[in-house]
Specification:
Number of strands: 11
Number of domains: 1
CATH architecture: 3-Layer(aba) Sandwich
Distance between the termini: 30 Å
CATH topology: Glutaredoxin
Strand order of the largest sheet: 1-11-10-5-6-7
Structural class: alpha/beta
Largest sheet: 6 strands, mixed
CATH class: Alpha Beta
Oligomer: single chain
CATH superfamily: Glutaredoxin
Mean pLDDT: 86
């Protein structure tokens, strides 16, 4: 895996369209504010200085795959924190739905509500799906790692739930080793 990673696939298929082109590592992450499960405001600009953000977009709280992923992230929350990262989940669900999902399942990660899909569109994960002759909004399960400087380090538009959390932790550890190695190298030359 290179310094910046992209795991992607072609999302455009019959009956599916995306609002924005996909983002790529090295580009500036779109900045946003969204309400969280407690109806407080999450402002990305207030979180980024000093830590990375793992931004995970998922379809709906009620989906078994969403629960599985949220539990996986929650069980490894301390490891993400040791890597200097915070995990944030975003879906179209309302704040109260997120609160119920979090409380009923012991979810530790921050859950944000994007009911109109504005942030989903900014990150290129919004889809209009044709099902039974009706176009319905949908979110393509995707994950981004945003560096503390606001630059995208990962854009994964093809999440494989089987080993996704582990791959993310490996990437974060690698990024930290490189960062720490660069700091040590800089001190030797100073």
């Amino acid at each position: 895996m290179g310094q910046l990673a992209t795991w992607s696939s072609d999302l455009v298929s019959s009956g599916t369209s995306r609002a924005e082109p996909p983002l790529a590592p090295g580009s500036t992450a779109p900045i946003f504010c969204l309400p969280n499960a407690d109806m407080g405001i999450f402002d990305l600009t207030e979180v980024l200085p000093g830590r990375m953000v793992v931004l995970h977009f998922y379809p709906r709280d009620v989906m078994p795959s969403s629960l599985k992923q949220a539990i996986s992230f929650s069980e490894r929350e301390r490891e993400f924190a040791k890597c200097g990262a915070m995990v944030v989940g975003i879906s179209l669900d309302e704040c109260l739905t997120h609160a119920d999902f979090r409380d009923e399942n012991g979810i530790a990660m921050e859950l944000l509500s994007d009911p109109d899909g504005e942030v989903c569109r900014l990150y290129g994960v919004w889809q209009d799906r044709l099902a039974d002759g009706v176009v319905r909004p949908a979110v393509h399960r995707s994950t981004f790692v945003i560096g503390s400087d606001g630059v995208l380090l990962l854009a994964d538009y093809n999440v494989d739930l089987r080993d996704h959390t582990e791959k993310l932790l490996e990437l974060l550890k690698t990024l930290n080793r490189r960062k720490n190695g660069n700091h040590q190298e800089h001190r030797r030359h100073a």
